[in-house]
Design a protein that fits this description.
This protein has 336 residues and is mostly helical. 72% of the residues lie in helices and 2% in strands. A two-stranded antiparallel ribbon has the order 1-2. It has a two-stranded antiparallel sheet with strand order 3-4. Helix 12 crosses helix 13. The mean pLDDT is 87.
């Protein structure tokens, strides 16, 4: 698809994201006007409870939803490219399950959540995501070549194992505080949002997009299949592990902060390819924009359906994701 049209879709996506951000600032335990929002940003007074809630609670929550949606969408697109399978996403390939196991282990085994001054959940989730993805890729490969069907089966098996171990750790949780933390986290929400945590997912997403901007041609070659990509001079093994590392980092950080939020990495890459083309220059950026907008919309809907606390956002994403997954299963020809 030509670049001008792709840029037009990107601009539309950015405008939609901005509109959802502004609308999200109005929705909460009490409604606010657009005039009050503008006044708050121009004359912020932390002594005003309403302004304080807007800047310290609502805005970080929305920005975390934006970063989480963008990260999961880019991760899903990377995994679909890696295995040339439109059904791949961070959950089907065990990446998110490994991240969940790492996060649960940190909540249960280290109640203080810090070790040597390091906040453990993101680190443990990253390690779990990377370990699970490496294991799935190893089980789903033969003689260095990824086999799509065994890979998906390996992802289901590793995901089930990680879920079982995570459930065991939750069951054996010694303290009531640890159990409450795990249960609350498992609902999937953005309640842990704060200005202190936002730089980490933002840094991972930003650096990943910069790296991927230089790898766009390599990603297009991988869509042709590993053998053809290797014949055209692409170092397939090196690129594979780089993509695995990026997908694990993007997924691990989100799962550690937000809990399980499914189907974003499955649905959004397909929407992006439908708008920008399979080999578009701006696909990864488009995934980030549309993924952020999608999760912002889901969070807004969750708060509108069950005010003021809101439903777990994972429930809302499943309402969209499950029918789409069934559609993909029944579709005879994939976009690949």
């Amino acid at each position: 698809m030509k670049s001008p049209r792709s840029l037009l879709w990107l601009a539309a996506g950015l405008l939609l994201t901005l509109a959802l951000l502004v609308l999200g600032l109005r929705v909460g335990s009490y409604s606010t006007s657009y005039g009050f929002i503008l006044y708050t940003f121009r004359h912020y007074n932390p002594a005003d409870p309403a302004q304080l809630a807007l800047v310290e609670l609502r805005l970080p929550r929305l920005l975390l939803a934006l970063l989480a949606g963008a990260s999961l969408a880019v991760s899903g697109s990377l995994l679909q490219t890696l295995v040339s399978n439109p059904l791949a996403d961070p959950y089907l390939l065990g990446t998110a399950s490994g991240a969940s196991l790492g996060a649960i282990a940190s909540y249960v085994l280290v109640p203080s959540l810090t070790l040597a001054g390091v906040y453990l959940p993101p680190v443990a989730a990253l390690a779990g995501a990377f370990g699970a993805t490496v294991l799935v890729v190893a089980l789903g490969s033969q003689r260095g070549k990824i086999l799509p069907a065994p890979l998906l089966l390996a992802g289901v098996a590793v995901g089930a194992l990680a879920a079982a171990v995570g459930s065991l750790l939750t069951f054996l949780a010694a303290g009531e505080g640890s159990l409450r933390s795990v249960v609350f986290w498992a609902f999937g929400s953005f309640e842990r949002a704060g200005w202190s945590v936002l730089p980490w997912p933002a840094a991972v997403l930003g650096s990943s997009l910069v790296v991927l901007a230089f790898l766009q041609k390599d990603l297009n070659l991988l869509l042709l299949g590993e053998e053809r990509a290797a014949a055209l001079g692409l170092p397939v093994a090196a690129r594979r592990w780089l993509l695995v590392g990026l997908a694990a980092a993007l997924t691990g950080g989100v799962v550690a902060l937000c809990g399980p939020v499914g189907f974003v990495g499955l649905l959004v890459p397909h929407l992006t390819r439908g708008l920008l083309g399979t080999t578009g220059r701006y696909n990864m950026l488009g995934c980030a924009v549309l993924g952020g907008a999608f999760l912002l919309a889901c969070d807004l809907l969750a708060r509108l359906l069950y005010p003021p606390a809101g439903l777990p956002v994972g429930l809302v994403t499943a309402l969209f994701g499950v029918p789409f997954f069934v559609y993909l299963l029944r579709k005879k020809q994939s976009s690949y």
